[in-house]
Amino acid sequence: MINQQQIQKQLQKPAQASSKASGQTELLKGFRIEASNTDPTTQTGFERGNLHDYFVVLERSKAREHARTFWRAGYWVEVFDNESNELLAGPIDPDGSLPSYIV
Question: What does pTM read for this prediction?
Answer without folding.
Answer: 0.67
